[in-house]
Amino acid sequence: MKAFFEGIQTLFVDFLFKPLDGLRSLELVSWFGANTLNWIFMIICSAAIVYWIKQLRIFDDAGTENQDTTAHSFLK
């Protein structure tokens, strides 16, 4: 059983976390380069929020949203 868990450790430490080790060493050279992945995620989330708000506005302007307080049975 010990070999099983050591195998999992080897998988993660020696293989799957190697790109993150590279980012950690890159931080000493370039902060912006090391945080590129974070910037990409922030841009994707910002675009998703803008799209979501536009869709909410479209449905709100069309009046298709049911804003009745009795829309759910548990609110009666």
UniProtKB/TrEMBL annotation:
Please indicate if the UniProt record lists Transferase as a keyword.
yes
Q: Name one Pfam family in it.
A: DUF6341
Gene Ontology terms for molecular function: glycosyltransferase activity
Which InterPro entries did the record assign?
Answer: DUF6341 (IPR045922)
Glycosyltransferase as a keyword of this entry, yes or no, is: yes
Instruction: Give the top-rank taxon of the lineage listed in the UniProt record for this protein.
Output: Bacteria
Q: Which UniProt keywords apply?
A: Glycosyltransferase, Transferase
Query: What's the protein here called?
Result: Uracil phosphoribosyltransferase
> Which organism was this protein described from?
Flavobacterium glycines
